[in-house]
Amino acid sequence: MKVLQINAVYGHGSTGVIVRDIEQMCERDDIECHVASPDPNVRDAKRGFLIGNTFDHKLHALLSRINGKQAYFSRWATRRLLNFIDEIEPDVVHLHNLHSNYIHLNMLLHYLAKKDIRTIVTLHDCWFYTGGCFHYTAARCMRWLEGCGNCPKKRQDTPAYLWDCSASILADRKKYLLAIPRLTVTGVSEWISNEAKRTFFADTPVVTIRNGVDLDVFKPTPSDFRSRLGLEDRYIILGPASKWLQPMNKSVLNYFSEHMQADEVLLLFGATDCSIPMPENVRLYGYTKDREELAALYTCADVFVNTTREDSLSLINVEAQACGTPVVTFDETGPKETVDGECGYAVHVGDSELLYETVKSVRIQGKESFGEFCGVMVAKDYEKELNYSKYISLYNEIMGYTM
C-alpha cells in the first residue's frame, strides 16, 4: 500500500509531529508513506516532496489577502504536486492542514475526484467545512451552516482586506469535496466530528481519531525550573501565552492578577515577546521547540490553566496531564473532552471567577491527588501509538484489507 500525506508543516508544531508519527508507523508496518509539504523540513522525511518555494508562498499570501480567497493560487506548485502524485500512484491521499498559502485546493480536489483516489480529510480545525475560518465559536457565528457570507472573521483567520468571498469558498468546498467518490473524514475530537456531521459531510463517513502524545517524552520530568525562575516557594499556575494574552481574555487575566494569593504566580509560556509589561504576579516564558524542556515545564507547575475558547482538541492539556499536572480549562469545543473531573475540570467559557475558584479547589485537593488519574486517562485515551495505529487500521479498511 502507498499513502501520501499532505500538510502545511513537517516534524514540528502539532500537525507536523502528527504527520511524522503516522509516517513512522506506516513504515514500521511496511506501508510506503510519502509526505508533501511546503515546509523545507519535509526533506527530512523518508519520502518527502517540497511544495512550491518561498516566493510562491508569499505571492499566494498577498493575492489571497487582496481577493479574499486562500488556497486559490499556487497553480504551478500544485501542478508539480499533481505530477508527483501521478508518478507515485498512491492508494490513499491523507489531507491534513492545507491553509498556509501553498496549494490550489480546487485543483487538488478535482484531481483526486477524477482519479478516484481514496481520500481522507483530517479536521485539525474547521477550515474544510467553512468559508475560510479555522473556528467560529468565539465569534458566535453559525453562518457556516447556511452558506456563509457577511463573515465576522473577514480580517482574522485568513485575512481578506477587500472582498468577502466566504459564501463562494464554502460552495466550492462542498462541490469539490463531495465529488470525491471515496472520501472519509476524521475528526480529532468528538466535538469537531459532531460539528462536521451537521454540514455537507452529513452523508460522508466521519470517524473520530484523537491526537496522541508521546509518553516517552511527556511524563513527570524533574528540573531546576523553579530555582532558575526564582519560584521555589510559589504556587505556579501555568498557562499558554497564546490563549491568555488574547484580547478576549483580558478580563480573565486581570481577574487572576487581582485575586491571586500572595504566593501564587501565573506563568505564561510560549510568549513571542517576553518584554510585554505584565502585572507583578504574572510572568512570561518564551517559546520552546524542545519537548523535553516543555515536559519539565509542565511538571514544575502545580496546575495548568487553559483559557482557550475554541480548539479542536487542545493537546497541550493532555501533555500537561501526562506530566502529572491537573488541568482547568474552558468548557466550549474540544478541550472539554480532555478533563473528566478526576484529572481536571472544565468551567463555563469566559467565567473568570469560576475559573479561579476551581484553581483554588485544585490547590486545596493538592496536585498529588490528581497525578494517578491523569496518567491513567492519558494512557487510555491519548497514547500516541494507540491512537495513530487507528489511522493504519483506517487505511487498511478503506483499501478493503482485513487485519
Topology, element by element:
Layout: E1 2-6, H1 13-28, E2 32-37, E3 48-50, H2 54-67, H3 75-88, E4 92-95, H4 105-114, E5 118-123, H5 166-178, E6 183-187, H6 190-196, E7 206-208, H7 225-228, E8 235-240, H8 241-244, H9 250-259, E9 264-271, E10 282-286, H10 291-300, E11 303-306, H11 315-322, E12 327-330, E13 344-347, H12 352-365, H13 368-381, H14 384-399
Parallel strand pairs: 1-2, 1-4, 2-3, 4-5, 5-6, 6-7, 8-9, 8-11, 9-10, 11-12, 12-13
Helix pairs in contact: 1-14, 3-4, 4-5
Distance between the termini: 14 Å
Strand fraction equals 15-25%
How would the global form be characterised? globular
Counting helices, strands and paired strands, the structural category is: alpha/beta
Spell the H/E element sequence. Answer: EHEEHHEHEHEHEHEHHEEHEHEEHHH
Number of domains: 2
The top level CATH class name of the largest domain: Alpha Beta
Report on the biggest sheet. Answer: 7 strands, parallel
Residue ranges: pLDDT <50 for 5 or more in a row? none
- CATH A-level architecture of the largest domain: 3-Layer(aba) Sandwich
Q: What is the share of helical residues?
A: 25-40%
- Trace the largest sheet across and list its strands: 3-2-1-4-5-6-7
Radius of gyration: 22 Å
What would CATH call the homologous superfamily of the largest domain?
Glycogen Phosphorylase B
Average of pLDDT:
94
Count of strand segments: 13
Please tally the helical runs, counting DSSP H or I stretches of 4 or more residues: 14
CATH topology of the largest domain: Rossmann fold
